[in-house]
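Morning!

This is the sequence you dropped in the shared folder:
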Amino acid sequence: MSEDVDNLIVLPGVTVGLVDEPSEEVEAIEGLAPPDPEFLMAAVEAVLFGCDQPLSADAVRVALNVELDGAVEGALEMLRTAYQERGAGIELVEVAGGWQMRTVQRAAPYVARALGAKPVRLSRPAVETLAIVAYRQPVTRSEVEDLRGVECGGVLRALVSRGLVGTVGRTDDPGRPLLYGTTPGFLSFFGLGDLSDLPTLRDLREMQADDPAEGPVPVPEA
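The structure's back. Tokens below.
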């Protein structure tokens, strides 16, 4: 297969070639006029449907070449309301600093069965480590280990490989150990708009008390 064929992305109704430099066709796309007002909501829907990552309103605005303030935001809210009112199998949610179309929770098992997907599960050590990173970030590996009382190198590497945790810098301490923090993938995985959507430590303790069968889960102090 030729290199040109290998570098093609095919989506329903469109074929996009990946190029190193803008071609005349790409320049023509960049110069497209914004969608007509009556088509704006549909265009927003199409852009979100074609992306597998959350998009900010600004990113959608740039894609549609819309300059009118509030137009894209208004279309996003109308689209979200339209899905809710007709009881659609998908919903529009704000997650990881952007907007994304997702399967509604009630329909998720059917989609998983159709795709042959298995539930994503995190081990207890991974959950404990991830909680410490989320609430204490930026945090070093040794700080995580001090709180958990066990070696956490392998668990941290696993969380990094899954895109839930990443390195965000180094400390000035001897050896300059790495600092860890959560990623946009963490927000997307848990359906959070930003870190302020995390449950408070008090909420976590109340949930822990409601399910004593699970046993105590260490919750880092703020």
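Headline: The beta strands are 8-11, 14-17, 90-95, 98-103, 139-140, 165-170, 178-182.

More detail when I'm at my desk.
O.
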